[in-house]
Sequence to fold (146 residues):
Amino acid sequence: MPGVRALGVDLGSKRIGIAVSDMSGTIASALTTVHRSKSRRHDHVEIGKLVQVEECEVVVVGLPLSLDGTRGPAAKAATKEVAQMASVIGVPIEMYDERFTTVTAERHMLEAGLDAKQRRLVVDKAAAAVMLQSWLEHRRNTRGAP
Fold:
């Protein structure tokens, strides 16, 4: 199965982290951060523009499951937002477990020597990249993609 160009989305209350895969669907990279506006629809339109510019075939949104794997209030809110987003985004949207992505991103940034201010500027898109990379690897391992 060929690779897929995917946009990773980490929904936050103030910022939305965005990552993108390479054309082969192998490597995820942090792309940008969308600052929340007063309008969710506006935020979704901004994500839709990135889907078009980056020529993505699928959007992968982080699903914030509880530590025990259940769907708590945050996961239910994200699922509701994805349903709203689907009316604006012109490609399929999948949700993928994002547990520990922010923690992993923070650890990598600490190891890279970024201070707290630098980390705050990039943590959202870094978490989106960690989540998207996990999705790409899971997809490759379960679908036999190269």
